[in-house]
Amino acid sequence: MGFIQGSASFTRYWVEGTVPREVMESLPPRVGRYAFRPFADDSDQEKSMGWVNIMDLFDNVMGGLDYLKEPYLALSLRVDVRRVPASALKQFCREAEEKVKAAEEIAFLPRERRIEIRESVKRSLLHRSIPRTNVYDMVWRLTDGMVFFGAVNAALCDDFAALFYQTFGLTLQAVYPYALAARILEREKRSLGALDALTPCLFTGGRQPSD
Asked: Which residue of 120, 136, 160, 188 has the fewest CB atoms within a 10 Å radius of its CB?
């Protein structure tokens, strides 16, 4: 469920450092370069990922500044994945190998030949498969550099942070409780040593960690 449609799980980040002015002045080419691209007919890719309009997952043109909604920048990360089921690959490979052996009148195929057949069959099946599409919203609050990404999966978050860096040249730092507390203390010009004296506390029944 995306940010626009209702409740959602999300991961928070800070943009490290100050955002250079040239980044904001060159948004169209930056976003357009990493906009989502569907699989080409002859592509062997199993995964395609890029930016789309947060209001329309089929809009990857990014010609204007529709994603700039002051004071926010809002986009969606679209991820298309296509896979060949292992059982189907095994069955089609077996059939292909039998055809080759019959055509060449041989009883055994060397390993290298079976690998070639497997790769050829996999490419053929991959081109026939229908991609599975997922979309994850991203909102960047430009006033304080806070970024909200609509997913919590670690691998997906890593892909998102990498694409964000490629697009904007900016590094994201995940927000976790200690970092959030440290940021608040720094803003209030207080010592971070106050955090060292903290001890874990259970908010449910049971023994405390220090018991």
From this structure: 188
Contact 27, 185 (CB under 8 A): no
**Surface-to-core class of residue 11, CB atoms within 10 Å of its CB (0-12 exposed, 13-18 middle, 19+ buried):** buried
Cα gap 30→54, rounded to integer Å: 17
Kindly give the confidence (pLDDT) of every residue in the chain, 211 residues in length, as a single tens digit, with 9 standing for 90 and above: 577 777 778 999 999 888 888 888 889 999 999 999 999 888 889 999 999 999 999 999 877 888 988 899 999 999 999 999 999 999 999 999 999 999 989 988 999 999 999 999 999 999 989 999 999 999 999 988 999 999 999 999 999 999 999 999 999 999 988 888 888 888 888 888 878 777 777 777 666 555 5
pTM of the model: 0.80
